[in-house]
Amino acid sequence: MGRLYICKVSNYEVSRRNILVHPPEPPFNVLFGDPGDSIYIGRTKIFHVPFYWSYRHVTNPHICAVGITGSGKSYFIKTFLMRASFVWNSNALIVDWAGEYRDWVKQTGGRIIALGKGAYLNLLDLGGMKPYDRIKQVMRTLELLTDIGQYPEQRRLTEMAIEKSYLKGKFKMDSTEQRDEIGKHLMAPTLKDVLKILEEQSKLGTYEFPAELENAIYRLKQFTKPGEDFFAQQSTISLDEITNAGLVDLDLSGLPDETFRALGALSVLQFIKEKMRASGWAKEKGLKLIIVLDEAWKIAKEDNSDAVMIVREGRKYNFGLIVASQNPTDISESIFSNVGTTFILKVKFEKFLDYLQGTLNFSNFMRSEISKFGVGEAAVNMAFHTTTQFPSTFLMDRIEGEEPIKELFLDLEKVLTEEQKRDVNMPKSISFQKEDLRKKLRQYGLGEDKVEELSKMFEQKSRHLDIISFVILLERYGIARSNIATFMKDINIDDSTIINIFTKADYKKEDLGSRDITQVILEED
């Protein structure tokens, strides 16, 4: 039988124990939803309560997920989509900026639509809209992605040419019903038709501002060049194909640059938004469609983006949006203030934590915990319907998917100073989700065969590799030292430790033992 002892405890220690403070977790009835109408995420960190996510407690079904590469962000998204398909029979559309989800979607039996690799989307398709409304959307998109808004005359010329292209095609400008005399659906014009109208006007030589007209023509030509006319041909995909076909990956990685990718993403979001409005209010439970925007900063940052509009309206139509990014400042404050749930995984910079804490208003205790996260650990912030007496932000022990997160570890023990080793808050290794590390290595120029070879080496070493050996291997594979340094900065290793890593790597390569080195310089491109 145990014994009780009376001992002195400092006020600081008493305050840390939070004896009279409500635990930083919502009550059981909020966390534990109906398994038949909610998504299992994992267990809470303090009381290990199973957390079943449901939009019934929060203001809307939209989600933000933020975290660095390797934090488990894409693992969470994949887990969420798979479970939503089982629980609610939800369709899912991933607007895949870099082709990251392509292989996974293929493995799960989903459909791949690759713009820039054989698939086309006509920018002037109506998607059930009136031509006048579609023209406004197209012009707003061009203003977001180009500087046309700074040139009113070029904007006016372009808008008028688009209108003329619809009229030449016998479209009724204020109607959603577009058929010819025999009842056949009219075929939408393309940007090539618009360009032809502007060029014909230029040939006449009667326009009073020829330079403005030529610049308007030049601006459209970037989207109509042979081989880059992905949005200037008749569509090879339909809206129903991408919103009612289960799991669909809209792969934008084959498009030439960020502007083209953003144009494709915004156009699809606009068509979905109109389809959402046309479908009307839905009574059935669950989410009919979940749209994922991962690292789509170019369209998630602007307040007048269609992503923001879907966030504001989607709840009543049973549509959900998941916006994910490494950098929370790339996500519009309008999205953060309107989403019902935010999942915060490992965040790298203090300025990002400042932004999140200021936006979501969580405690310093929560901030401290977030800064120490490993792979799969998360804080969840929920915007509840009504004022509550419990915290809106709580900690998850780990996101639990259909398969355990496969972690790989870079051990830092050999490069830490004695003081760093004694610091309990100093990580002794850096963990990655396996697929995230493989993806990151490809981004820094490592070929597929070398990525595979390095992965096998981790497995042979029980998924642990010391950072010095790792750096030596990358250099042998032909990766420039400046790229390796950038990689290490990206995973939150400070400059002094990076210098120490390179120093010890040089010693190991040259077998110089522990001689003093007078100067080490990190070169950056």
Task: Please describe what this structure looks like.
It is a single chain. The protein has helices at 11-17, 28-31, 73-87, 102-107, 131-145, 152-168, 191-204, 210-221, 239-243, 258-279, 297-300, 306-313, 333-336, 350-360, 364-371, 418-422, 434-443, 448-460, 467-476, 481-490, 495-510; strands at residues 39-44, 50-53, 63-66, 91-96, 111-114, 247-251, 289-294, 319-325, 341-344, 378-382, 393-399, 407-411, 429-433, 464-466. With 525 residues, it is α/β, with parallel strands linked by helices. The protein folds into 3 domains: 24-121 and 235-399, P-loop containing nucleotide triphosphate hydrolases (Rossmann fold), CATH 3.40.50.300; 131-221, Orthogonal Bundle (Helicase, Ruva Protein, domain 3); 407-510, no CATH class. An 11-stranded mixed β-sheet has the order 2-1-11-10-9-3-8-7-4-6-5. A hairpin with a 5-residue loop joins strand 1 (39-44) and strand 2. Helix 7 packs antiparallel against helix 8 and helix 17 runs antiparallel to helix 18 (448-460).
